[in-house]
Amino acid sequence: MSSDPHSHPQSHWHPDVRSAPALAQRLDRLAMRLLPGGLTALAAILLAAPTGIPGAIALIPGLAMASVFFWSVWRPASMSVPVVFCLGLLLDLIGFAPLGVSAFAFLLLHGTAVHMRFGLMRLNFVTLWLAFTLLESCVCWLLWFLVSSLSFRIMPTAPVIFECMLTAGIYPPFAALGNWAHRRFSNPEPQL
């Protein structure tokens, strides 16, 4: 047995330097996977903050639904079930519904988008937007039904109609930004 530390390439005195890039790559991939959900959560928190911007809080559910749908179709690993669940709970904690209601509705939206993603990816933008509008309207009405059932009274329908229209209007600019981010993450600039 040799006492030379250089004779054993993976000696505890000389760690394998090839593992460092692998760790950095794994951390980079993890950050990219958490970025859409993290940015959506951050936007929800910032919009819920008392900034004095009129109507800012009304954007939160629509922004969250647009994010869940977009990333579930184009990058489902970045909008995983735990991320969607946490986003739904965050919206419930901000005050939109009883705890778990938004999480349940968002999980249904996520599951539908992931299940239909290959068909949705083939659609042109207008048809995809119409599909999103149909799905988000179903989610909004489901939320209305669940909140009405849990509160034992029929909630007003005007806010649901407004939320459906607002969410449909949020999707095009969100999709444009999401498409840019999706291309940017898929083809990052080379390191110099």
UniProtKB/TrEMBL annotation:
Pfam family, one: MreD
UniProt entry keywords in alphabetical sequence: Cell membrane, Cell shape, Membrane, Transmembrane, Transmembrane helix
Domain of life: Bacteria
Topology versus the membrane: Multi-pass membrane protein
Subcellular location: Cell membrane
InterPro entries in the record: Cell_shape_determining_MreD
Transmembrane regions listed in the UniProt entry: 30-49, 55-74, 81-108, 128-147
Similarity comment: Belongs to the MreD family.
The protein's name in its UniProt record: Rod shape-determining protein MreD
Species lineage: Bacteria, Pseudomonadati, Pseudomonadota, Alphaproteobacteria, Acetobacterales
Gene name of the encoded protein: mreD
